[in-house]
């Protein structure tokens, strides 16, 4: 009898420890809130001003967003430094640089920016992030709720999202380092959700006439046709896009491959060209880690908002496919 009671007590203690370590209700609620954030950033009409902070860098931008006939239309204008703006309609992105009298046009189907940081489908995020709902607060005067994501390994960073309780729009996003430090932050300082936008809010303010137009040519490539092998498979990261890009007719064509776990992404750029004596190098720009290496007559650049270990591990596993 004593043995039976001891076994039952031990089993109960184990079950209780598991429940305390990862309460199912909190995890499920966190995933539901994430889905609301993913949908809200795409489907809602909103406008406002947000601030980006990373280290000592602070940038302020104005944004307007709407969904027209199922297509997202968005305009972002930088309010600091030299004038510049980005106008997006679906996957077509136009970047205006009036001081340089330059407009760059390209397709960015796989690239997202604040507040559209989450993918439409959350997929396997719970396998690689511990997700839970957090407390409540206020961002830009709006009642908000936190969702916290802790990385389950050392190949990605954590995240802290604050959403509008009423609509689900993402109001604030913090990228959290491996020591719990904030690496970068996006946050609305003023926001209007719903209703109609001001007249002309989605139209570029800068004249696109009498300027140089640079069309970035991008051609999708089938995964088996890229000509390169990625031997190192990072857990959770899968190949989501592969394309050949050419910034200008006089520039060589490069290969751009994107890997993502559904939240974090890593870009691999492979282009012809070799510099004498060029060796492996690692650099960082805020939370973005960059790994460069020379492979024969090609230059490889691997970069992303992930720990340095991730970009180096992926970069060291790249090889030229033998014909």
Please give a structural write-up.
The protein has two domains: 23-193, outer membrane lipoprotein receptor (LolB), chain A, CATH 2.50.20.10; 216-320, Phosphorylase Kinase, domain 1, CATH 3.30.200.100. Residues 1-23 have low confidence and may be disordered. The relative contact order is 0.13. 16% of the residues lie in helices and 47% in strands. The chain has helices at residues 2-21, 24-43, 125-128, 308-316, and strands at 46-54, 57-68, 71-78, 85-89, 92-97, 102-107, 129-139, 142-151, 158-164, 170-176, 182-193, 212-215, 217-220, 228-230, 238-246, 254-260, 265-272, 281-285, 288-295, 298-304, 318-320. A hairpin with a 4-residue loop joins strand 16 and strand 17 (265-272).
Entry keywords:
323 residues, alpha+beta, outer membrane lipoprotein receptor (LolB), chain A, 12-stranded mixed β-sheet, 7-stranded antiparallel β-sheet, 21 strands, globular, disordered N terminus
């Amino acid at each position: 009898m004593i043995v039976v009671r001891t076994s039952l007590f031990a089993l109960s203690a184990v079950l209780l420890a598991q429940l305390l370590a990862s309460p199912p209700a909190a995890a499920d609620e966190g995933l539901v809130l994430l889905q609301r954030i993913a949908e809200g950033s795409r489907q809602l009409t909103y406008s406002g001003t947000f601030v980006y902070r990373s280290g000592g860098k602070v940038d302020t931008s104005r944004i307007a967003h709407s969904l027209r006939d199922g297509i997202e239309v968005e305009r972002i204008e930088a309010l600091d430094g030299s004038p510049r703006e980005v106008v997006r309609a679906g996957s077509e992105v136009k970047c205006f640089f009036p001081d340089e009298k330059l407009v760059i046009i390209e397709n960015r189907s796989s690239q997202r920016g604040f507040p559209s940081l989450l993918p439409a489908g959350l997929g396997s995020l719970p396998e690689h992030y511990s997700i839970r709902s957090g407390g409540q607060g206020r961002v830009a005067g709006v009642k908000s709720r936190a969702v916290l994501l802790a990385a389950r390994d050392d190949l990605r960073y954590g995240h802290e999202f604050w959403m509008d309780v009423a609509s689900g729009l993402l109001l604030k996003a913090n990228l959290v380092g491996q020591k719990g430090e904030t690496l970068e932050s996006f946050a609305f300082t003023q926001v209007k959700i719903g209703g109609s936008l001001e007249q002309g809010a989605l139209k570029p303010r800068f004249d696109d006439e009498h300027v140089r137009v640079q069309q970035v040519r991008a051609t999708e490539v089938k995964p088996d046709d890229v000509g390169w092998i990625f031997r190192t498979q990072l857990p959770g990261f899968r190949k989501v896009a592969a394309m050949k890009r050419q910034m200008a007719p006089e520039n060589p064509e490069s290969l751009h491959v994107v890997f993502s776990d559904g939240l974090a992404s890593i870009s691999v750029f492979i282009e012809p060209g070799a510099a004498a004596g060029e060796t492996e190098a690692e650099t960082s720009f805020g939370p973005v880690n960059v790994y460069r290496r020379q492979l024969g007559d090609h230059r490889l650049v691997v970069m992303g908002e992930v720990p340095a270990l991730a970009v180096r591990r992926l970069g060291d596993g790249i090889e030229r496919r033998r014909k």
